[in-house]
TrEMBL record:
Domain Isochorismatase-like, residue spans: 14-234
Annotated Pfam families: Isochorismatase
Name assigned to this protein: nicotinamidase
Pathway annotation: Cofactor biosynthesis; nicotinate biosynthesis; nicotinate from nicotinamide: step 1/1
InterPro entries: Isochorismatase-like_dom, Isochorismatase-like_sf, Isochorismatase_Nicotinamidase
GO biological process terms on file: pyridine nucleotide biosynthetic process
Keyword tRNA-binding applies: no
Keyword entries, A-Z: Hydrolase, Metal-binding, Pyridine nucleotide biosynthesis
Organism: Penicillium subrubescens
Upper lineage: Eukaryota, Fungi, Dikarya, Ascomycota, Pezizomycotina
Length: 240
């Protein structure tokens, strides 16, 4: 892969495919994103491009008692998609900090069929699977950090199986390309945190779909303000 610009220094790209899992896809996913499965051909095309120094897939990977599952909370404030509960920072020195957490249907329970990658994705080309959201008491949309932005491995090692920023740094990655599900949650947060971690961050618009499609305009603005470039699949930078 080649960058068609000039004077930007080294270009060492990585691909991050976010949460292309059964529970996020029709027809049977418990948190299905409309047309989520239709992203597979474009993602496989990206996977087949030779330029990426690493190809990483993330998986939402929750314990059954995860704080984001509506059914783990008492009524009346336990309506999936609608209710929010107060979530505490799991960092020992930040326990007084809390923030509202949206509730979801049970999804992507570790080891369950819903947590599996969809078989349409060419998993043989994926170098590393990042499993996130493993800590029962905290949400983790981004593959880089939990909902409180915790980066200390002493805290995050309970939420995620690998420190993705270190993996990318060791490979000399300069640029991260992000696709997958869902554009308004895990894809957005992962792309923003990639930029925060010091990588140029590119989100390929045709490579994502939103839980709530009406959210995409607002999400794109948040991404832009946060330093992420939302680009198209046929832009020169993603062409071989
Ligand atoms: C996601 C909601 C809850 C996502 C994960 O992958 O975008 N959304 N958990
Ligand atoms: Zn989740």
């Amino acid at each position: 892969m080649e960058f068609k610009g000039s004077d930007r220094g080294p270009f060492v790209p990585a691909l991050i495919i976010v949460d292309m899992q059964e529970d996020f896809c029709p027809p049977n996913g418990s948190l299905a994103v409309q047309d989520g499965r239709t992203l597979a051909p474009l993602i496989n095309d990206l996977l087949s491009q030779p330029g990426f120094v690493t190809r990483i897939a993330t998986q939402d990977y929750h314990p059954a008692d995860h704080i984001s599952f509506a059914s783990n909370h008492p009524p009346p404030n336990n309506r999936p998609f609608e209710s929010f509960i107060e979530m505490k920072n799991p960092a020992p020195d930040r326990k007084t900090e809390s923030k509202p957490q949206q509730l979801w249907p049970v999804h992507c329970v570790a080891g369950s069929p819903g947590a599996e990658m969809i078989p349409e994705i060419d998993a043989g080309r994926i170098d590393l699977f990042v499993q996130k959201g493993k800590h029962s008491q905290v949400e983790m949309y981004s593959a880089f950090a939990d909902a409180f932005g915790n980066l200390d491995p002493a805290v995050t090692s309970q939420s995620v199986n690998v420190d993705i920023a270190s993996v990318l740094e060791k490979k000399g990655v300069t640029d991260v390309f992000v696709v997958g599900l869902a554009g308004d949650y895990c894809v957005k947060c992962t792309a923003i945190d990639a930029f925060k971690a010091g990588f140029r961050s590119w989100l390929i618009e045709e490579g994502t779909k939103c839980v709530m499609p009406d959210n995409w305009g607002k999400a794109k603005e948040e991404l832009r303000v946060a330093g992420v470039s939302v680009i198209h699949a046929d832009d020169p930078i993603v062409k071989k």
